[in-house]
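Researcher: Here's the sequence for the chain we discussed earlier.
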Amino acid sequence: MKTNVKVYSTPDCTKCNQAKQLLKEHGVEFDSIDITESPEAFQEMRTVSRGARSVPIISVCDRVLVGYDRAELLQAIGCLST
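Model: Thanks. This is the structure I predict for it:
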């Protein structure tokens, strides 16, 4: 099943883990992509985010969030209930 949410992150990123926890708490399925696992994953993140190099990068429906802002992420996942 294809999800509408991708979280680009690194294993030791606190904000990444907070974003993933919020998604789990709201029952949102997401693909977690560890950008340290391959150059391709890092390049995909850069392409999606139009060049951002910091994590988390969160792709939700047609939005791309750079960094973690709880309120912004909650608003963005609203597209999933439509």
